[in-house]
TrEMBL record:
It is a multi-pass membrane protein. The chain crosses the membrane at residues 25-42, 62-83, 95-114, 120-141, 153-178, 190-210, 256-277, 297-315, 327-346, 352-373, 380-405, 417-436. GO terms for molecular function: transmembrane transporter activity. One of its GO terms (cellular component) is plasma membrane. PROSITE patterns: MFS (PS50850). It comes from Rhodococcus spelaei. It is found in: Cell membrane. The keyword Membrane applies. This is Putative tartrate transporter.
Length: 472
């Protein structure tokens, strides 16, 4: 029997403090950041719904639409790493507020483009303005949450991805259908205006609400703040040493590049769904003799993302509970790879949407677990550069997926060829992450240890060798 003051009592007290701090920080940051990302992702992908009526007004082909969708990522990719380094230097509060203000202005400006050429230009500028937001938030979360909690909390934050489609699809469709002609604007123009302005307003809220680092958190009491600072500093010290590596070397790190390729494969599937699912559903009219209004199309598009969002939260928790990461990325990527090409060979709209839902589950379940991987060997300024580099390589798919899918659709007269490409790219991602996990030899689980244990292992690598020998 233990008595007061024993080590067991101290452990219980420390555990209770840890859970209290993590819960308080999560409640403070995750919902707010999720709202920001909801608006961010909606403004990035609402062009998929605008296409339903914008194409006729501007005279766009499917290939031109794919180019307009993908050009966003030209400016985005060029400025991604510099933007994340600026966030690391100037702080998340100021830099995220700046990103939101400029992207909101440009997202609303899409309502006034007179032709396809100007649409191209504004989409490029929107990418420049938005560069660094998503990797910046990922970096910001590593300042506040111990590694063993990150995947489940990342899953909650990234629930915004399916939510922005599940809620945003019918919202965009409703504005387009019932707001057509309001203020003299076409429905798609009004949608851009209405959905762009919230980012401008939230920029001011961000400036006053966010806290850059744990030691500045006045909303934690002294004991909670000291515990968080101590543990996050210990985890930073436990990283494998890359945080002392120059930025240019981090950008050339083979693991960083390989993870970027994996992320390219996963997001290729995400963007193919986000940009073209409204078109696929609208195409049911010709294929299956159905007739849906724009709003009904929005409701149907929402279904796979609702199902995928629930699966993503459960899968993230399962990954944290088991401590396994690599197969928690590979298995859902494989599910998406197998399911997406099958969808358009089925003979009913219900069967197509059921299989598309499996694809959404696969893509969405892979993403939050994936973003755990780079944080196991990068921290500090190297994390800022490395995470941005991975996101930049991965988001090349944002250009490739809509453009290649649109081009193949125009070329063949069917979406089947484009979706086969999606399946192949996802399959490559699943194979590569398994291969990378094998060569990393356990590196992807190192940060799951208690921070003091991991820090000791860095100080004395023999501890790792002894533990590995004992496990064999």
């Amino acid at each position: 029997m233990t008595t007061a003051g024993t080590p067991a009592d101290a452990d219980l007290e420390d555990t209770a403090l840890e859970q209290r701090v993590v819960r308080k920080v999560a409640r403070r940051l995750i919902p707010f950041l999720a709202v920001l990302y909801f608006v961010n992702y909606l403004d990035r992908t609402n062009i998929g719904f605008a296409k339903l009526t914008m194409s006729d007004e501007l005279g766009m082909t499917t290939t031109m639409f794919g180019l307009a969708s993908g050009l966003f990522f030209v400016g985005y990719l060029i400025f991604e790493v510099p933007s994340n380094l600026a966030l690391h230097r100037f702080g998340a509060r100021m830099w995220i507020a700046r990103i939101m203000f400029t992207w909101g202005i440009l997202a609303a400006a899409l309502a006034f483009v007179p032709n396809v050429a100007s649409l191209y230009v504004v989409r490029i500028l929107l990418g420049v303005a938005e560069a660094g937001f998503f990797p910046g938030v990922l970096l910001y979360l590593t300042f506040w949450f111990p590694a063993k909690y990150r995947v489940r909390l990342m899953g909650l934050f990234l629930l915004t991805l399916p939510a922005s489609s599940a809620i945003g699809a019918p919202l965009s469709a409703a504005i387009m259908q019932w707001g057509d002609g309001l203020f003299g604007l076409s429905g798609w123009r009004l949608m851009y205006l209405v959905e762009g302005l919230p980012a401008v307003l939230l920029a001011f809220v961000t400036w006053f609400y966010l806290t850059d680092k744990p030691h500045q958190a006045k909303w934690l009491d002294d004991e909670e703040r000291e515990w968080l600072v101590r543990n996050m500093d210990a985890e930073k010290a436990s990283a494998a040493g890359e945080h002392t590596t120059p930025v240019w070397r981090t950008l050339r790190n083979p693991r960083v590049i390989a993870l970027g390729i994996v992320y390219f494969g996963v997001t290729y599937g995400l963007y193919a769904l986000s940009f073209f699912l409204p078109t696929i559903v609208a195409g049911f009219k010709e294929t299956f003799d159905t007739d849906f209004t724009v709003f009904e199309t929005g409701l149907i598009v929402a279904v796979p993302f609702v199902i995928g969002g629930v699966a993503m939260v459960l899968w993230s928790r399962h990954s944290d509970r088991t401590g396994e990461r690599v197969w928690h990325v590979a298995a859902p990527a494989l599910l998406a790879a197998v399911s997406i090409p099958v969808a358009l060979y089925l003979n009913s709209p219900f069967a197509v949407m059921a299989v598309v839902s499996l694809t959404a589950i696969g893509v969405l379940c892979a993403i939050p677990v994936f973003w755990y991987l780079p944080t196991t060997f990068l921290s500090g300024v190297a994390a800022a550069a490395g995470i941005a580099m991975i996101n930049s390589i991965g988001n090349l798919s944002g250009f490739g997926a809509p453009y290649v899918t649109g081009w193949l659709t125009d070329l063949t007269g069917s979406a089947k060829a484009g979706l086969w490409v999606v399946g192949v790219v996802l399959l490559v991602a699943a194979i590569l992450v398994v291969a990378l996990g094998r060569t990393a030899a356990g590196r992807f689980s190192r940060a799951d240890r208690h921070p003091t244990e991991a820090a000791a292992a860095v100080a004395d690598p023999a501890l790792d060798r002894d533990r590995a020998t004992a496990s064999r």
